[in-house]
Amino acid sequence: MKRLLTGFIAVPTVVGIVYFGSPPLFLFFVGIVTITGVYEYFKIIDLVGIRGFPILGMVLSVILLASFYFDAAFMVEWGLATSVTLFGVWFFQEDNVKTAIDQISFTLFGILYIAGLGGCYLLIRNFEGGNLLILFLFLITWLGDIAAYYWGKNFGKTPMAPMVSPNKTVEGAIAGLAGSLTAGLIAGFSFLDHIMMGHCLLVAFICGIIGQFGDLAESLLKRQAGIKDSGNILPGHGGVLDRIDSLLFAGPVFYCYFKFFII
């Protein structure tokens, strides 16, 4: 019931921001989600025994999102400045050289994993009809997740990756892919009728698969930390990372497909 109630509140809010919101409002929304996700990421690695630089990580994540929004060419300068900043912060705050590589690399990974991948949604939003494209990607992911969860819960028997996520099954994964393809059909017949159905189905198929790898990637982090959810900010759903793990992997693939084959 908590899961359903949270969905009834969160889904219309997200859809409203994506469809009706101005670009600055969408940037603010992506920024809030990113900062929360980065915060949860640092809590996870802290449980593993790796103390990164959470505040710096959140600041650099916001700067990276700003580079996506204002000028993607700035990312080269961002990369150079971030590398120097991370080494500089470690140099002035830490004295144990055995932890240097872990702290710096895990901090940088968290930034790229969440803000780097999530920033692609700002690029998609800049496409003509970008708000509809983002809703399409959400539909691919959401229907896939729902189908995988309920079908796997009731009919799943064959473990897919027991070492990483014991509850995920092959049957659930197949149902999730079917859900993503259904999203392609719905979008192609309704609000994306200007795009060939073949493209809608193919991108739904690709992102449906990639999104499941994103789910497994976050499960790997949680498995190592010994936790079930990345947080508890969303009742019945866990943390923000639990809700965007598939979207983080699917977003860049979706962006590349439309940039090189459609737009």
Q: What report would you give on this structure?
A:
The chain has 263 residues and is mainly alpha-helical. The chain has one domain. 77% of the residues lie in helices and 3% in strands. The chain has helices at 2-20, 23-48, 54-70, 75-93, 100-118, 120-125, 130-155, 170-189, 197-225, 240-261; strands at residues 159-161, 165-169. Strands 1-2 form a two-stranded antiparallel sheet. Strand 1 (159-161) and strand 2 (165-169) form a beta hairpin. Helix 2 packs parallel to helix 9. The longest helix is centred in the last third of the chain and has 29 residues, at 197-225. The radius of gyration is 19 Å and the shape is globular. The chain starts with a helix and ends with a helix. The model has no long low-confidence stretch (mean pLDDT 92).
Tally of DSSP helical segments: 10
- The H/E string reads HHHHHHHEEHHH
Kindly report the average pLDDT value: 92
Catalogue the unreliable spans. none
Assembly type: single chain
Amino- and carboxy-terminal Cα gap: 41 Å
Question: Taking Cα atoms only, what radius of gyration do you get, to the nearest Å?
Answer: 19 Å
Q: Kindly name the structural category.
A: mainly alpha
From the spread of the alpha carbons, the general shape counts as: globular
Q: What level of helicity do the residues show?
A: over 70%
Give me the side-by-side strand order of the main sheet: 1-2
Number of strands: 2
Strand content: under 5%
Question: Main traits of this protein?
Answer:
263 residues, mainly alpha, 3% strand, globular
